[in-house]
Amino acid sequence: MLTSKEQLRYSRQIMLKQIGEEGQLSLQNAKVMIVGMGGLGNPVSLYLATAGVGNLFIADGDSVDITNLQRQILFTESDIDKNKADTAAEKLQEHNSDTSIEVIDEMLDGELCDYYFPTMDLVIDCSDNIQTRYLVNKHCVEHKVPLIVGAATGFDGQQLVVDPRNAESACYHCLFPESKKPPENNCQTVGIVGPVLSIVAGMQSLQAIKLLTGNMIHINQLNLFDGLSNKWQQFKMKKQESCKVCGHSA
Question: What's the CA gap between 47 and 220, in Å, rounded?
């Protein structure tokens, strides 16, 4: 049961029939890993910590740079050169001291994925490079852990839910098959408008809360955001049987 303090703190969520006290308890008991504590990981971790997700695992081996401050909203000038995951954990604990936060202050590799993912209820990919997305997607599929992917460059963003527990779910590799020459577009090469990251991160956080509280989420749907026109578009996907990660040929 929730304590009287918790009932008061999360009262605006609990009053929603789609969440209620049972949903709040599900959030409290959940284990969620956030990969990347940059422009997406900052707001995602903040939304989930304040929503009452009880166990957050945050992974990033990078350090805060002055160029990050334009969009990575947890960090300040005094955090420059500090590890992102360590620094974010300190800030998040100030927002919610009841949330347990484990820091992985290095870049994820296959060994770390195999160690952590089987214990997770959800993984949220907030990384800024496609190789990490391939890695995280592969290991989520292998361990049948739901995955929420987000990405953004310029004025554009994208978001996708992969649920390997559902045999019909397409994965990230179905959408973007791995090539010998991966795309080079990222915020370092083409730039990024900070609020676009917050919009995509908000969608990732919303999907996470819905999934963890047993509300319906849509798989096989790519959500694209155009910040210049302020429009979302949804595109249907299909599991690729030839996919080397999740298809029959895997």
Answer: 24
Q: Which long-range contacts (CB under 8 A, 24 or more apart) does 226-231 make?
A: 226/155, 226/156, 227/154, 227/155, 227/156, 227/157, 227/193, 227/195, 227/196, 227/199, 228/155
Residue 187 pLDDT: 59
State the chain's maximal CA–CA distance in angstroms.
Answer: 56
Annotation marks residue 187 as catalytic: yes
At residue 189, the 3 state secondary structure works out as helix
Q: How far is Cα 56 from Cα 75, in angstroms, rounded to an integer?
A: 18
Taking the complete model, does pTM exceed 0.85, yes or no?
yes
CA distances (Å), origin 239, targets 155, 218, 234? 28, 14, 16
pLDDT of residue 185 exceeding 80, the answer is no
Is residue 141 helix, strand or coil? helix
Strands 55-59 and 147-153, by their bridges, are unpaired
Give CA–CA dist 24/30, Å, rounded: 10
The dihedrals phi and psi of 28, each to the nearest 5 degrees, come to -65, -35
237, exposed or middle or buried, with CB in 10 Å at 0-12, 13-18, 19+? middle
Q: How would residue 248 be classed by pLDDT, with cut points 50, 70 and 90?
A: confident
Architecture in CATH for domain 4-236: 3-Layer(aba) Sandwich (3.40)
Catalytic residue among 113, 187, 243, 246: 187
> pLDDT digits over 121-168, tens only?
999 999 999 999 999 999 999 999 999 999 999 999 999 999 999 999
Q: Which residue has the tokens 């009053």?
A: 15
